[in-house]
Specification:
This protein is mostly beta strands. It has a single domain, classed as Sandwich (Jelly Rolls), CATH 2.60.120. The chain has no helices and ten strands. Strands 2, 4, 5, 7, 8 and 9 form a six-stranded antiparallel β-sheet that branches. It has a four-stranded antiparallel β-sheet with strand order 1-10-3-6, with no helix packed on it. The two termini are 12 Å apart.
Length: 152
């Protein structure tokens, strides 16, 4: 796919507590006006138990106002160190069951590890980390979103 990069935004933050899924950094908004995206991740789990990092997209239509899982990175095993991943999004011909959650309460992901639903996310996405008991709190997770417009 050809196009031009318009901007790059970042969501970054620290895993604050084990056994409690939490939003990492700020939500990335304004995606509706762009054609496609590349998401680059730098995630880390230097010690402790398994860490799951995933992206949720915001659904706001017909009385629905919730976040739904969109991308889930491979689970990071204990002492996995720092890993880097890239996810691109394109329409897929698949149906995947996901769980909807309220604004303030991110849930443990329902997507299988290493899953990308694809398609356009709508206008808002957020990064969420879910650390198992004894996972490394204090580890930094970062998502870079590169916004593209198709060339006309």
């Amino acid at each position: 796919m050809s196009g031009r990069v318009i901007k790059v935004e970042t969501a970054t933050g620290v895993v604050a507590a084990a056994n409690a899924p939490a939003v990492i950094g700020k939500a990335i908004t304004g995606l509706a006006q762009y054609d496609w995206f590349v998401l680059d991740f730098t995630v880390s789990n230097p010690t402790g138990a398994t860490l799951d990092v995933f992206v949720q997209r915001k659904i706001e239509a017909d009385g629905v106002d919730e976040w739904r899982d969109w991308i889930r990175l491979p689970s990071l095993a204990s002492a996995a160190g720092t890993k880097r991943y890239t996810a691109t999004v394109a329409p897929l011909n698949a149906i995947t069951e996901v769980k909807g959650v309220a604004e303030a309460s991110p849930a443990t992901p329902t997507l299988a590890a290493n899953t990308n639903i694809g398609g356009h996310p709508g206008d808002k996405i957020r990064l969420v980390a879910s650390a198992a008991a004894s996972a490394a709190t204090g580890s930094t997770q970062t998502m870079y979103v590169t916004f593209w417009d198709a060339e006309v």
